Amino acid sequence: MNDYSYEDFDLPEAFQPNEASPWWNNKADNAWQLTATTMVCLQSVPGLVILYGSMVKKKWAVNSAFMAFYAFAVVLVCWVLWAHQMAFGSALIPLMGKPDVALSEKYLLEPSGDGKVPMADYVFFQFAFAAITVVLLAGSLLGRMNFYAWMIFVPLWLTFSYTIGAFTIWGGGFLEPYIIDYAGGFVIHLSSGVSGFTAAYWVGPRHSRDRHNFPPNNIIHMLGGAGFLWLGWTGFNGGSPLVAGRIAALAIVNTHLCAATSLLVWVSLDMIVYKKSSVIGAVQGMITGLVCITPGAGIVEPWGALLMGAMSGSIPWYTMMVLHRRLVFFQSVDDTLGVFHTHAVAGILGGLLSGLLAKPNLLTMMYGPDKHGPGLFYSLFNGQIEFGFKQFGYQIVGTAFITAWNAIVTSLICIFVSRLVNLRMNADDLEIGDDAAHGEEAYALWGDGEKLPKTPRLRIPPRIPSICCRLI
């Protein structure tokens, strides 16, 4: 930030700053940040609400969509009351900041850390990240979790799991000087994938019939929700620099390039192995590409994004379509939408590839000189190979910490919640689904083999026939 202000210049009155837009406020950056934040919010509501409500059986459509809708609301309240300061405030311990409100006018209207946009932009942008993390986690629990248990679980997980990862890697914690995580491959996707899988273990499986036969109830709506998720990632990765600059533009191109490549690779593998392309597979491939590029979107070259897309379309495909069916470890846990594969595996892959492919000059543009890296690949050519290996090692440490913390804390939260309410719906309610959980159904249609009620015959009053005859 420059060390001068408008007071140092003799400007005409028409060009003098006003109280609503002080000299430090960059209007272009502010406008872009608000736009990017809205795009990230649209990924959750309506994006994942529609995606979840469409990817499950008809009897779970309402419950699945409502889990995402509820989480989005409660995270915002918790975020401004205490969680934002725990993630990005002054340090209480090396793992977390001091819990405090982020609601005062003075706090929200002061400049953010880079001094170009109001703090309110940063608070709301980081809320959108926190909210989508919890909503992604929910994908592992659809089709059987007691909604009352989910209501308790969300604020506890946000407080004791998400804020710790955000603070340690982004907010000034002990890993912040070392880990490359451009927009949340570790903080968001690895944590949601590991926590979702862990919570799925504690909640237990779906009804046996649901687990073996769980077709989506609306493929077209599923693609609509996936579209919100894909295009909303423009704000997800494009908004992370907090400025409308070159890194944001590069991150957006890399994001969509990686997602498209990953989708094509996933569909190709489906056609080669199963002789048929799968719409659900295409959506999964899109998601793994978006997740994989996230930790390195603004700091890798486009050829690196293509490589990351090829790997995110193949490695998670292998873990989901092959290993998941062979290993007892995966079969013993009912991860409804395969969040472990699409987010944990793809998040680890992206984090490690960022440590390999991060370009030195892009790292400098994003973080400043001598902050991170270089990537191991580039270190081979600039005589800094020891620094490249060190950065790659830091990425492994980040993977291990986020994995261990989320597995342990999520388990403790699930155990605590289970002492208050049942984590899983009872067997009779699992047979019924939405009507048992909420007294509502997704579609006002008869289906699933139900018999239509007999239509009562119309009783005509005695005088009507004579009138009808005269009319005829």
TrEMBL record:
Pfam families, per the entry:
Ammonium_transp
Alphabetical GO CC annotations of the entry are: plasma membrane
Tell me where the transmembrane regions lie.
Answer: 31-53, 60-82, 122-142, 149-170, 182-204, 216-235, 247-267, 279-297, 303-324, 336-358, 392-417
Coiled coil spans: none
Identify the residues that the record assigns to the Ammonium transporter AmtB-like domain, covering every copy. Answer: 31-443
Q: How does it sit in the membrane?
A: Multi-pass membrane protein
Q: Which domain of life is it from?
A: Eukaryota
Q: Give the family from UniProt.
A: Belongs to the ammonia transporter channel (TC 1.A.11.2) family.
Q: What is this protein called?
A: Ammonium transporter
